[in-house]
Amino acid sequence: MIGWKDTVVPTLSLFTSAGTLVCCALPALLVSIGMGAVMAGLASSFPQLIWLSEHKVWVFSIAGVLLVAASWLQYRQRYAPCSADPKQAKACMRLRRISMGITIFSIAVYLVGFFFAFLAKYFI
Asked: pTM to 2 decimals?
């Protein structure tokens, strides 16, 4: 049976991995394409961006832990039985596909943020 863990954890992992993009990938992109003034405006409007950038190790650690938890829950629930009712079984399988898509998208977003936060300086 699909429970709250199978929907809440992947959704939280999506939001935390999006936080890694906001923290590190967005500022790097804006500065690299010559939009430093836009970045300065964003930083003055949203000072939380500076806090996220200063604590990027914590941001990436928490996001990574949630992504591992979401992936583990996905793996563990891959053969869990769905309801015998055809409508509920169809909804169960659809929810599994959506949850898997959210998890994969979250991992992709996390990896992009990780690249810009920690690896891009070696390539640029």
From this structure: 0.76
